[in-house]
Specification:
Helix content of chain A: 40-55%
Number of strands of chain B: 6
Strand content of chain A: 15-25%
Largest sheet of chain B: 2 strands, antiparallel
Strand order of the largest sheet of chain A: 12-24-23-22-13-20-21
Helix content of chain B: 55-70%
Low-confidence stretches of chain B: none
Largest interface: A-B, 78 and 68 residues
Strand order of the largest sheet of chain B: 1-2
Structural class of chain B: mainly alpha
Mean pLDDT of chain A: 84
Radius of gyration of chain A: 33 Å
Oligomer: heterodimer
Shape of chain B: globular
Structural class of chain A: alpha+beta
């Protein structure tokens, strides 16, 4: 079993484009089948079986056949009975394996939610130590360094660094502070420094961790609308086949070849869509599981399904489309200054600059102007950036005297030049304005020496679109998904970046109301909208969106409003979520097609077996030349059972999904699962027949 | 110069394809315009006043369905009364009242657009019953089918209104604007090709050899036209279109095949036009035509190659076929009549080779959707499209939608029940018929052929086809009653489910298609749609077919 992979969805920032990364929690191992067997036996409870109509019918058939085999024993009858029960067991096994994988995660989460003591602030003043389980919504608790946060809530006072690794797996501590969009804390996390007062926002037992446990265990899993609809289709197909098999007996009697009930049950079980019926709930659980593996918690399966249907993606510019920091893009020398001079000065001023912007200047200079890199000259003194000067640079002692190089915001740098008695050419002002209106950030480089100063030129810093984003958006467009970039930038800047990134539309100078309005507009056109948000003011839009993903760093209002939470707070995740939703639905469709296509081969195995004694000509339908009628029936039943187990790994990891237009996806999946579903069972049944036909009493 | 059989056969097929290709576009558009235009004709206003209905009322599906059921119930009772009271009516030609079981069977048969005939027309019915009873239902039952189809299309198109049109308007327009003018033109053409049209009763002639022969005349051409156009199939004579008065020449034969195919093959165009995307219609047409061509090829091959030991011995499969038509024209008519729920015959399907007859059986088992009856073919194939979209939609990673309408729990339930309804009526009927000695004895042939006969009878009834395999004495209380029930269930269960589906689609606001939506107008989808049509049928009926035609063919 190879490691299940999806094409990389994080963009170049995380990994080079095209590098596969894991989808599910590691490869499926056959050992999981064995360890889940006890659970599979427990699921033989009729109250559980009845939830899946197809499997329930198999179980009824197995009971009936068992009774008949007891009454009229034969090797054939007992073999069929044994395999009918195996079929039921295998169907249960699929669900048990899927749930088992979740349970392991839940166990590790439970260690988080072990009871802690809370220091509750009393209205009358003072604090009381109470068990965390007695906390109520609205209670105020104090948490100090080294203590565990007793429940979900918002920081209302103070600032602290918090270790959230128990939940997110991310070891770097995060800052939580009152007010603003970084105020939410999660029960079970640990405060590392300082002291905060937290207002509890979730009842004990309904906290984030509790919900997470319920989700991964599958206990809170409700059937999703599409799953219910598919179950109805499968149930009605079961009815059709029940009808076909029940009415077959009078025809068989008329034809002088009445059939034993065991054979009729075997035919029925082979025809009804057991494969997809058995795997359906495992597919649903595994879909949730895949999200959890990516640190996304979906509050409902409905949201996962909706993710597959998303027609419009609202993406935040910063962090999703562009790298978080601006980078040097171009050097524009002032009149009378050579490019080499400017490059040299820019580099010198940045040698000691550790900010990403500063690094990017070095990179640019090296890329464009060759390896000028040199060690910091002796005697050079770096001048760090301060909020007062808004400049950084370097002071050098050269043969001709002291030389000061500064780099900083246009206003600050030009002011510095003027103070030293230098002139700022009008041309520089124009360049600065042009860069600003195009959405970039101008940095002015200046030098002062021998009592005067001059502007050397301008560094154009701009938002850099992440590598590979244009291709991602093209894929999304091919999938029929419109991308809208949301940014606080002005219209012109936003348009410039949008054009570069290749998004379909922009929402510039976006206010929360604008977002809400945009979502409503898209929805009224029949499109489902997905967005990610973190702030309290995002809450209405998150609630309105069909798929609203709240960042874990966000406020509890945002988390409450959305239907998913991303523990990594990674805005690119939205694209992965959509792909997982699609993969879930495709897996259902593909296995349904496969399951139904299988019936053709089973008919060709069983029907001639039933009636060849009456009509020898029907042997022509026995196209794979199965050995004997008994062997043919048994082989079909065995194949039908084994194919369930064989497809469990596929159900758990989902079918391979490549972003493509619907027409191409349909064509590919029809070939693989439609045609494959027709051909595979002919081969499989024949192979089993070769074995089974050696069994005395059958062969 | 005499044409060879093959050349003549190919010529007929070519002519037919040419005619259909030329006519289906304007006719499809004409039907679309007729059924959806805002204006009412004066004659129509008169009818609405008479019926006391408001033609501008746009109704939800329960109202639409209730009107349809009420109308069909009244029609059945009226027809039943006609048949039972025939001896008191003018132009009865002295025929006595029809027996109750047979009257029930016949009334249901004509109201459900089946036109199964357990009687022989010329020996049982007078002219008034033929014209005012049966021929009227030939128009109305076809118009009902048309109404349901257009209601479903409205449901697919409408955005959130929940209404699917007005049954009475659809019924009246379908009859007055579409069927009547076409039937009139058809009748004129048929008369020109030699079909009889008069009001004579039976006349006894002395033949050249000195014996005496009774020849019945009547309003044959007029009934013939609507018999084919409305995919009804109830013949004026027992011999149906094999009778020289109904279908005298190879030319009239082509005209009749054309008439019975023309509306069903034009409706995809109507659909495409109404949904505002003609390629949707073309895709449906391709599915219908593709399966039709395949089935026709099988029957034609089996018949012209005289498969089977008896035909091989005589060198041709001409038993039960008219020499003036031969194998080619007979196979064409047979495929057309079984594929369209018409049920008229110009040859005896019972005498076909096992494989050829089996293909005819399969045509009906497909649910009469290739191209199917007037209206019923279109709505039947659209329901199968819903099932196809459901599975195909999942395979492209979306919760499935058809023309922008979501297929959720309710929609899939209705569609699934729809594909269950006809097999239920059919297989249950066969099982019961084979279960008792009394009913088994009505089967005249032993072995697989006998099974095929029973299977054919119930398939024909449940599929509202009406053609008979013969070889079975169906004028018994059991068969009259059971087949009547099968016809009733096979017609109205699907109709009600389709209307409910239409209502549920109409209540939705269709989403605009994107590149991520499953396209329903591509060859890939059409191929999958056709596969679903064939596979659903195949899986349901394979065991029955194996014991009937397959066992016989492979013997």
């Amino acid at each position: 079993m190879s490691t299940p992979t999806l094409p990389d969805t994080r963009g170049a920032a995380a990994a080079p484009a095209g590098t596969p990364h894991r989808v599910a929690g590691g490869a499926f191992s056959p050992r999981q089948l064995v360890s889940s067997l006890p659970d599979a036996f427990r699921k033989l409870d009729p109250r559980h079986l009845v939830r899946t109509p197809v499997v329930f019918v198999v179980a009824l058939g197995a009971v009936l056949s068992t009774v008949l085999a007891v009454a009229d024993p034969s090797v054939f009858a007992w073999v069929v009975v044994a395999w009918l029960w195996t079929t039921v067991l295998f169907a249960n096994l699929a669900e048990a394996v899927a749930e088992g994988r979740g349970r392991a995660q839940a166990a590790s989460l439970r260690t988080v939610s072990t009871d802690t003591v809370a220091r509750r602030l009393e209205a009358a003043g003072g604090e009381v130590r109470v068990p965390a389980s007695t906390l109520r919504v609205g209670d105020l608790v104090v948490v100090e360094a080294g203590e565990t946060v007793p429940g979900d809530g918002d920081v209302v006072e103070g600032v602290a660094s918090v270790d959230e690794s128990a939940i997110t797996g991310e070891s770097a501590p995060v800052i939580r502070e009152s007010g603003g969009d970084r105020s939410a804390v999660t029960g079970g996390t640990t405060v590392l420094s300082d002291r905060v007062v937290v207002r509890i926002t979730a009842k004990a037992g309904e906290s984030f961790v509790d919900r997470m446990i319920a989700l991964v265990e599958g206990s809170a899993r409700q059937r999703t609308p599409n799953e219910i609809a598919l179950n109805i289709l499968l149930a009605s197909l079961t009815l059709v086949f029940l009808l076909a098999v029940v009415t077959l007996q009078p025809m068989a009697i008329y034809s002088g070849r009445p059939q034993s009930v065991v054979v009729l049950v075997a035919l029925l079980v082979c025809l009804i869509p057991t494969t997809i019926g058995a795997l359906l709930s495992a597919i649903g659980i595994a879909g949730m599981d895949r999200l959890v593996q990516r640190n996304v918690l979906a509050m409902s399966g409905r949201a996962v399904e909706a993710a597959g249907d998303v027609g419009t993606l609202l993406l935040d510019k910063t962090g999703t489309i562009t790298l978080g920091n601006r980078q040097a893009h171009e050097l524009l020398p002032a009149p009378g200054v050579t490019l080499a001079e400017l490059a040299d000065a820019a580099q010198l001023s940045s040698l000691a600059d550790t900010t990403p912007e500063g690094r990017s200047v070095l990179v640019l200079v090296e890329e464009r102007h060759g390896p000028l890199t040199r060690e910091r000259p002796p005697g050079a003194e770096p001048v760090p950036f301060t909020a007062q000067t808004r400049m950084s640079g370097v002071d050098l002692v050269t043969a001709s005297g002291r030389r000061e190089i500064r780099k900083g915001a246009a206003a600050a740098a030009t002011h510095w030049v003027r103070t030293l008695g230098g002139d700022v050419p009008a041309e520089v002002g124009r360049v600065v304005d042009d860069i600003a209106t195009a959405g970039g950030t101008p940095l002015v480089v200046a030098e002062g020496s021998r009592g005067t100063a001059r502007v050397l030129g301008v560094i154009h810093l701009k938002d850099v679109v992440k590598e590979g984003m244009r291709e991602r958006f093209e894929q999304l467009r091919a999938m029929g998904i419109r991308t809208v970039m949301v940014t606080g930038d002005n219209e012109r800047t936003a348009r410039a970046i949008a054009a570069e990134a290749g998004v379909d539309d922009v929402l510039a100078e976006a206010t929360p109301e604008d977002k809400l309005e945009l979502i409503r507009r898209e929805q009224s056109g029949g499109r489902l909208v997905a967005m990610m948000g973190d702030g309290t003011n995002d809450a209405p839009a998150l609630a309105q969106a069909d798929v609203g993903v709240a960042m874990n760093t966000g406020t509890s209002a945002a988390k409450e409003a959305g239907n998913m939470v991303d523990l990594d707070s990674d805005p690119t995740k939205l694209i992965e979520i959509v792909e997982i939703g699609k993969q879930l639905l495709i897996t259902r469709g593909a296995l349904t097609t496969f399951s139904i296509a299988n019936d053709i081969a089973k008919y060709f195995a069983i029907v001639p077996a039933m009636f060849v004694p009456a009509f020898p000509g029907l042997d022509a339908l026995n196209v794979t030349r199965l050995a004997t009628p008994e062997s043919a029936v048994v082989s079909a039943v065995v194949f039908n059972a084994l194919v369930i187990v064989a497809l469990i790994p596929l159900a758990l990891r989902g079918v391979r999904y490549r972003p493509a237009a619907a027409a191409a996806l349909l064509r590919r999946n029809l070939w693989v699962y439609g045609l494959g579903g027709v051909v595979v069972p002919f081969i499989g049944i024949k192979l089993i027949d070769l074995l089974v036909s050696t069994v005395p009493g059958i062969g | 110069m005499a044409l060879s059989d093959t050349a003549a056969g190919l010529l007929q097929i070519g002519l037919l394809v040419l005619l259909l290709a030329a006519v289906h576009v304007p006719l499809g558009d004409f039907i679309a315009a007729s059924l959806t235009g805002p204006r009412h004709l004066r004659a129509e206003r008169g009818v609405y006043r008479l019926l006391r209905v408001d033609p501008d009322a746009d109704t939800r599906w329960p109202t639409y369905a209730l009107s349809l059921v009420a109308f069909s119930t009244v029609s059945t009772l009226l027809l039943y009364a006609f048949l039972r009271l025939q001896q008191h009516l003018p132009l009865s030609l002295g025929m006595p009242a029809v027996e109750p079981a047979q009257a029930w069977n016949t009334a249901v048969s004509f109201v459900t657009n089946t036109n199964w005939q357990s009687y022989s027309g010329e020996a049982t019915l007078g002219h008034l019953v033929q014209m005012a009873g049966l021929a009227v239902q030939n128009f109305l039952s076809a118009a009902v089918g048309l109404a349901v189809a257009v209601a479903l299309v409205r449901g697919l198109v409408r955005a959130g209104t929940g209404t699917i049109g007005n049954f009475w308007v659809d019924l009246v327009r379908g009859t007055l604007r579409v069927l009547l003018p076409l039937a009139f033109a058809g009748a004129v053409v048929l008369v020109l090709t030699g079909v009889v049209q008069n009001l004579s009763g039976a006349t006894t002639y002395t033949t050249l050899a000195g014996g005496s022969q009774t020849i019945v005349g009547g309003p044959i051409a007029s009934q013939e036209a609507i018999k084919e156009l409305g995919t009804n199939g109830g013949g004026f004579f027992n011999a149906n279109s094999a009778h020289p008065f109904e279908n005298p020449t190879p030319i009239s034969n082509v005209v009749e095949v054309f008439l019975l195919l023309v509306i069903p093959f034009s409706l995809p165009r109507t659909y495409g036009t109404l949904v505002g995307d003609r390629r949707q219609g073309s895709a449906v047409l391709a599915v219908m035509a593709g399966v039709f061509a395949l089935s026709h090829a099988v029957t034609l091959y089996a018949e012209t190659h005289a498969l089977g030991s008896a035909p091989q011995a005589v060198g041709a499969a001409m038993e039960g076929k008219e020499v003036r038509f031969g194998e080619w024209a007979s196979a064409l008519f047979a495929t057309a009549t079984t594929s369209t729920s018409t049920g008229a015959v110009n040859s005896f399907h019972d005498s076909y080779t096992a494989l050829g007859g089996g293909a005819l059986l399969v045509n009906m088992m497909l649910g009469e959707v290739t191209p199917g009856g007037v209206g019923s073919g279109l709505y039947g194939i659209l329901v199968l499209a819903v099932i196809t979209v459901f599975v195909g939609g999942l395979m492209v990673g979306r919760t499935p939608e058809f023309l922008g309408n979501k297929i959720r729990q309710r929609e899939i339930t209705l569609a699934a029940l729809h594909i269950l309804a006809t097999p239920f009526a059919l297989l249950t009927g066969v099982a019961i018929a084979l279960s008792s000695e009394a009913t088994r004895s009505a089967v005249l042939n032993p072995g697989p052929h006998g099974l095929s006969e029973v299977l054919y009878a119930f398939t024909s009834a449940a599929g509202n086809n009406g053609s008979a395999f013969a070889g079975i004495s169906v004028n018994t209380p059991f068969y009259n009653t059971a087949l009547g029930l099968a016809m009733l269930l096979g017609r109205f269960l699907p109709v009600l489910l389709v209307l409910a589906l239409a209502g549920s689609f109409a209540a939705q606001r269709p989403a605009a298609p994107t590149a991520g939506t499953l396209p329903t107008r591509t060859p890939t989808f059409a191929g999958m749609h056709a596969a679903v049509v064939v596979v659903v049928t195949g899986l349901t009926f394979f065991p029955a077919l194996a014991l009937g035609p397959l066992a016989e063919a492979l013997a």
